[in-house]
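To fix ideas, we quote verbatim one protein's residues and fold tokens.
>
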Amino acid sequence: MTTQLVQLPEVERLSPTCIRILGGNPGKFSLQGTNTYLLGTGPKRLLIDTGEGKPSWIATIKRTLEEENASIASAIVTHWHHDHQGGIPHLIEGWPGTEIYKCQPEAGQLDIADGQIFKVEGASLTAAHTPGHTVDHMVLVLREEDAMFTGDNVLGQGTAVFEDLGTYLDSLEKMKHLFKGRAYPGHGPVLPDGPGKIVEYIQHRRQREEQVLQTLRSVGAGEDAKGAGSWTPMDLVKIIYRDVPESLYPAAAGGVVQILRKLEREGKVLSVDSDKWRSSDRSAL
């Protein structure tokens, strides 16, 4: 993160049907902490994500439900990362019998199908499979608000990491057509214009691709006869991400590798060896 994080309260009612409860796990990549969301207006609620299972989170969930005179009917996990599913054991301990839904479920969990609907009084969610950040990533559209819970595909501040860039971009294209309202992200503040932010994300990723290509086409870090104009991912990071704190360089390098692999599939770059890349357009060198 290169910008100051917005301060978020531990618990905040975001709409008549949605309460955000922070996971109590702030950090470099989790930002203010994992957002977990309690949905509905009646005695049975839906929970989206479970944080890491921090004691402060489970205590806050209990207190909030007592204040709401409600209990949890089902928990829906957006993806497998520990900061989103780590609280499941504590949740089951506190509310035995709670149904846990997750794409590619583990033992004792229930699967989520693309298009599956979850309902409680005051809230109806439609799930959509949107891999890229992870292979099992799901987003959820809240019909009552025409809003989307975007998991970690779209964050409230900064940009997201991903396992496969091409798949991730396809999912962003899918997501932007599924709703018209706010985005409730897995980390960070609510985004007033969800589809607009997704368009920004797509444009940002395209811009990064172009920066990688332009850098590869310039005079390379390696200029021997075999690998003229060749660059390692970290060489590229030091140029493209020069305004980013060096502590984030390893994460940025992971993203650059994903860009390079996508461009390689498209025939735009070539792998010189296990850790060096060059433009396939040799006339640019």
User: Anything to note?
Assistant: The CA atoms of residues 139 and 150 lie 5 Å apart.
